[in-house]
Design brief:
This protein has helices at residues 2-29, 33-61, 63-82, 87-115, 119-150, 154-158, 160-174, 189-207, 216-239, 253-283, 288-295, 297-317, 319-337, 346-374, 381-416, 421-450, 465-470. 81% of the residues lie in helices and 0% in strands. It contains 17 helices and no strands. The radius of gyration is 21 Å and the shape is globular.
Length: 471
Amino acid sequence: MGVLLAMQLMVILDGTIVTVALPTIQDDLGFTDSGLAWVVNAYLIAFAGLLLLSGRLGDLLGGKRVFIAGLATFTLASVLAGLAVNPAMLIAGRFGQGVGGAMASAVILGMIVALYPRPGEQAKAMGIYSFVSAGGGAIGLIAGGVITQTLGWESAFLVNVPIGIATLVLALRFITGQPGIGFDKGADLLGAALVTIGLSLGVYTIAQIAEPESTTGRSLGLGAIAVALLIGFLWRQTRAATPLLPLRIFRDRRLSTANLVVVTIFVAGFGFQFLGALYLQRVLGLDSLHTGLAFLPAPVTLGITSLFLSSRLTGRFGIRKVLMSGMTALAAGLLLLSRVPEQGNYFADVMPALFIMGVGMGLALPAAIMAAMSGAAPEDQGLASGLNNTAQQAGGAIGLAVLATAAAAVTADRIESGTAAMTALRDGYSLAFLIAAGVVAAGTVLTAFALRTPATPETAAEESEPATAAL
């Protein structure tokens, strides 16, 4: 478990550290404003595009093989990024990190489920997983500024190298290799190409929507191609003798519903993180280091809740009730943020909402992941893990694009109508937080009506036969 979580920590840590280091990277390597976005996009496109394929490879070849290959790739790519002397070299390194991160991350959840098959232990494991993810984000926000200012931006990438080497040695020693079902059970090369290109193009399309040079026609065209490729992939899966993605996995309503709910959680989470940082800096006037410190209540509360409360509440009340409670708290926190005044005070107007959101995420995220993973058969655990990670990435990309675009549009409209710039910025962020709260509310309704999970093991017999079998 420690080895798996070390890799997860590297992936989370890398994302937040790099975000803080971007201005320094631009100055040192001569990135243009549009080119700098590729430091993030190159990683995101490779990561999101390969998650589903990597998860299925874990089922076919064995989770240990795919995990170790991904860990080694991520570590080597971190060396390339840390030694970059020009933009092309750094982007290549970031793309390699995305490939390695996808390979390893896609099988982590499936391997955790295999380690802890009992519901109580699995709930604790998912709580620890969420705690590490939140802790990585919190550490990265602070460490990014400190490392960049004291050691240089290169260390933001090179810090992964000793951690990666140590984790690789421990993985070879402690992870038990479970045999896969065989490459011949799902070696659909055409399907693999269709889904990888389709997902990558889809993420790229979403990521560039908010770019200044983006046009509606271009975005619609790229989006149409991505959708056509994904439809072609689904059609291929109904015809292939050995499909990469057996569509039978979607017959489980809880698995499908839980992944949709995960999308809504990450739409709000990623969008809030990006726009919240802009609000703290542009409206409240905080610098980058104080912005990182200001975010701490949310990930710290998330970590404590997921580590100490989530598993206990899930064991007592069931996944569905805990998930609904967490999402209700998350929506409430976003609603509070949507009311922040222009001359707001961090401690009075922002920090309480961050605490509430942290509790909500700490309850909702482990429960949603458990629901998504519990509906998969043992031979599909890697695929289910890849699907869940894909849902997270899709939600993050959609949330960032939609909420950032909505905020920018409102701000521009207010300025054109004569509103003061600071007020216009506040109005744009407020609307974005309100939209995020609405998305989470929709996920709560979906959970209430479509996600049926027994409240406790003792009362499982009272539920329907399919739900009991799936649990």
